[in-house]
Amino acid sequence: MATGGSVRRSDLGAWLLKCNPTAWDLPGFWAAGERRLTSWAVRPGYRSAMMRPTDRVLWWVSGDGRTGFARGIWGLGQIVAEAETWVEDEAGFWREPSARHGIRARVAVDIPLFEEPVTDAELRTSGIGDLEVQRQPFAANPSWLSREQLVRLEDLLP
Predict the structure, then answer these.
(1) How far apart are CA 129 and CA 121, in angstroms?
(2) Structure pTM?
């Protein structure tokens, strides 16, 4: 497995994109009837440059659950296109203009959302507490899972 936070394609099981519901209005997105993501912001860098169409991707909601969305995995899908330079011109579901103004790249995805998440508590109860997002919750997008981590996780996914 890769060490020191470095990702190698030979180790990659899936990408993981995080949503902070204090910055992005997930309750509003859900209330509007939306249940599928088609793109997500990523930090430009070697990881986002490694993202390829058909790579698996998980969608993680962070936070303490006060928004009504428990911390954990809320979606599973795939990368549709390589990451691209992007400036977010529309407010969309961003709560504050400052949040969207920091976006410099995005990746096209097809991520259907789950009706109920696989919560962080469920993951930890099942012995999965070593995901990068659990160890470094404030790291930039994208995060990742190793092949071995994904195999341990698959039985918990809907």
Answers:
(1) 9
(2) 0.94
Give yes or no for a contact between 146 and 2, defined as CB atoms under 8 angstroms apart.
yes
Domain assignment of residue 103, yes or no: yes
If one counts the domains in the chain, the total is: 1
Residues of the chain with pLDDT under 50: 1-4
| CATH code, domain carrying 66 | 3.10.590
- Domain assignment of residue 84, yes or no: yes
What's the CA gap between 7 and 42, in Å, rounded?
15
Q: Pull the structure tokens for residue 44.
A: 């430009």
Is residue 7 a part of any domain in this protein?
no
- Which residues contact residue 98 at a Cβ distance below 8 angstroms, ignoring those fewer than 6 apart? none
Which domain does 89 fall in, by range? 24-152
Amino acid type, 149? Q
DSSP reduced 3-state for 121:
helix
